[in-house]
Structure prediction request, 499 residues.
Amino acid sequence: MNSPVNDNQHKSNTPHDPLDPCRRSDDFVMSTMTVSGLAFEVCYYKTLVDSHLLEVAIHSLQERIPSSEEVNLHDVLSHIPIEETKVTDQDEEMVQSLLQGSLLIRPCGQIHEVILVPMPGKEGVRSDNDTENEFSVIGPKVGFVEALPVNLHLIRTQLRTPNLIIKEMTLGSLSQSQVAILYMDGIAHPENVSRMEDRLKGIDFDAVLDTSQLDQLIADNSLTPFPLFTTTERRDRVIYALITGQVAVISEGSPSFITGPSTLFDFFVSPEDYYLPWALGSFFRLIRIFGVIFSLFASALYVALMTFHYEVIPKELLGKLISSRQNVPFPPFVEAIFLETTIEFLREAGARLPNRIGQTLGIVGGIILGQAAVEAALTSNVLIIIVSLSALASFVTPIYKMSNAIRFLRFPIIILAAIWGAFGIAIGLCFLLVHLSRLKSLGSPYMAPFYPMRFRDLKDSLIRASYEQTVKRPSYLRPLSFIRYKPGRIHQTNQLDEE
Prediction:
């Protein structure tokens, strides 16, 4: 008897095969085997089934069924030692069972009566795959791990539809790493999908160790400090990106996905925004945006005011600033650079050390160094407060890569403020806006929906509107289906009136 052989390229001659939508994904397996002289097709999603139960079912078919002239489905059913196995002729039940982790067995040439063997995999149910860098108080804590099959299993169990397409390829001339592309057929624009595939296939690299490397290799602009693809380790963020029309990519050995096309405002969106009432979600999103602006310009504004623009400072505040700097021998520029560099030293040291030691170093080191710097007259206590708040505000972004870009950009803006004052800050801001307006992510504008202006998409940019107002997908993604859902108002009745 023949063992199953992977035959993903097998095509049914029957045009109305209910499994035709499933064949488009690379994780769908259709194999053929011979039982007592009769050919059977074995179909399943390899990212959903339990590999041990699959071996048990196949072994039972090969070893327990006696040879006879006629073997029907009920004979096969009686020899499978797995509970809740059944025969069905319902097309919709076939597809739904496959998407829930069942094995489908049917005679070759017969498409409307099959055996369904439930064997859902448990690979994604783990106690150690919580998110570490994108934590939120409200919402699921499920994150990804370094095993590619587990990560695909986590996505499949959340999106149980044959329209979720997974395409696999091998990258890295030495590492031969498996890379998976995920998108929703009927939602994602084919041009975005083909562009992502072409860029990945065009990579000539020796070893792909993490998805972040792919982020840099396929980016539209390699000279920008801004991340052009959203990197996330959260399952709910990847699910949201897929259902809005984005394309997701993950590499073997990486615990994070990249999704695109992305915009600048995607990096200020937290999944927690959608688990809270829309007013609270909008408020916290505005807090993040304001925090990033403050982190970017606060230290530079201090340098500009203390160097060139004393006249704009109120008299009550000017006296305190002068008294705090009267013993400092350095100009404001050197003072700000010294403190910003010290903060970066503490941050890098805390990140590279074990968690408990790193936290202790950050807290104790910051307090001791700050107090010592003031007592030694190396800096003013006002600037210590400003730099500390700037460092704190740089971490309000949910995506760590964006906080790194903000940390880097503070230094050139401080230098411009030291040279030309407020005019230098304005020059830096103009260069920043021009640079952002020229960036593209997978060919789409990075500053959408503000440039080019799309008024309809503003409902989920700076603020998050209610679910009744966000029924359409973002237009900059050019989704094939714009409508996400049709919310209906719940008519509440007053029980007192009914009585």
Observations:
- The CA atoms of residues 225 and 405 lie 5 Å apart.
